[in-house]
Amino acid sequence: MSAVAKARHMGPRKVDLLLKGCDVVTVDGKNRVIRDGAVAVAGNRIVWIGKASAAAREVVATSTVDGCGQIAMPGLIDAHVHTAQTLLRGKLAEIGRRQQVKNPPWKNYYIPFEGMLTDEDVYLSGLLCYTNMLSVGTTCFAEAGGPHPDAMGRAAVDVGIRGFVALSTIDQGVKTPRTMIATTAQAYDRNVALVKRWKGTAQGTDRVQAWLSLRQIIVCSPELIKAMAEAARALDVKIHTHLCEGVYEIDYALEKFGKRPAEYLHDLGALDRHMHCAHSVLLSAEEMDLYVKHRPSACHCAFNNYHIGPHRLSEMWKRGIDIGLGTDGAASWGSLDIFQVAHMTRVGQQAVMGTPLAYRNVTPSEEILKVATNGGARALGIEKEIGSLEVGKKADILLVDRSQLDHLPLYDPYFVAANSVVGRDVRSVVVDGKLVMKDRELLTVDRAEIERRLAERLPRLMERFDAMVA
Predict the structure, then answer these.
(1) DSSP characters for 185-220?
(2) 222-226, 279-283, 404-408, 436-440: lowest mean pLDDT where?
(3) For the chain, what is the radius of gyration of the CA atoms?
(4) Are 4 and 49 in contact (CB under 8 A)?
(5) Coil, helix or strand for 273?
(6) Cβ(180)–Cβ(115) under 8 Å?
(7) Predicted pLDDT at 175
(8) Which of 6, 36, 196, 300 has its CA 20 to 30 A from that of 363?
(9) How does pLDDT run across 53-91, given as a tens digit for each residue?
(10) Sequence-distant (≥ 6) Cβ neighbours of residue 163 within 8 angstroms
(11) Which segments of 312-436 does DSSP mark as H helices, in order?
């Protein structure tokens, strides 16, 4: 008896969760769309996808979610976020109405702010950040590196999101808060210890793990960069860094080392698949070739990158570079909505790569949606686990409303998911097989309690911050 015949003979399979009656946009290699479909989950894995009419014959579910009028699609991935900066959302704009904002913001505001945060502050910031992410369809994140990463990890575990936390790592540089700088040995030891604490199921779940981090080449010594590259290979984890993010960084590398940033990392033996290079805006042709050859991953933060330069995401995607999308956190633009990042990405790529050549559709929205899902998973090194709806992959799934006026008429659910849907259309969210939001209600945390704690802590925190940056 064949495996298929044997399964049929045994009757319907028992599953834990069934999403039924939705249009399934798989974003898999074949871009399948199943109208009036269903997705079945057992444990934390997708075990069956098909027509809703066939679900009754194939599976028996402990719990069923009615997806009528909705689209089931993969969870989005934020491949570069600053958790600890969430409490600065809109703050620089408020400062700018009172006085001239100092540039660059990362040096004058973001790092000083991170340096004054306590473990409890960062945990609260994580609760706000990660619940916000889930509410707009992000099911997985990569933290850029901030203070108190264990507090971020605890928040991520409690909220129910998937992610990688990291420690802000600096061992040199002027005007760096004392709490944010370490010796080279301390920086190395703290990073390695963090990864080991969160390795595998050490914290009771493999949903939240840790990466190594290097803030950027200006504030990290060559000795630290080389040591961290060796550690990344030994531990088989990524190093999260900022690269080719500004002219100042390129000038620094040329002046100090006679190399551009990516060339400098390559000379140190650090530019390989273990390096995750956020932004990667100002790449020379030679640096782009190094990315293609040595396989570092990248992240395009469309809310901010076009302020820096003409990001060439379309070229990177077509040349096979593992690149995803990121918000860069809430401090600058404010939104943590990757759907909106995707829409801005497409407009920006059209302006940068298409319009100058009279090429009307250089990067279709459907391709950008792949970058936000498949690309993000590739960039994080977990494309075999998440990034599409396929049998065997982990169940990170969104149900998004497709019945609003700006979704109608509905000819193609993939078109609607890629062009019309934004974060507030997300109705229900499944992460690692668990329903964490249903009909816009968060099931893992008390939103009112988060707001109460914000109201209690923020006034004192902002009073200290205003005095510090005045």
Answers:
(1) HHHHHHHHHHHHHTSTTTTS-SSEEE-EEE--GGGS
(2) 404-408
(3) 22
(4) no
(5) coil
(6) yes
(7) 73
(8) 36
(9) 999 899 999 999 999 999 999 999 999 999 999 999 999
(10) 130, 140, 141, 142, 143, 156, 207, 208, 209
(11) 313-318, 338-349, 365-370, 376-379, 413-419
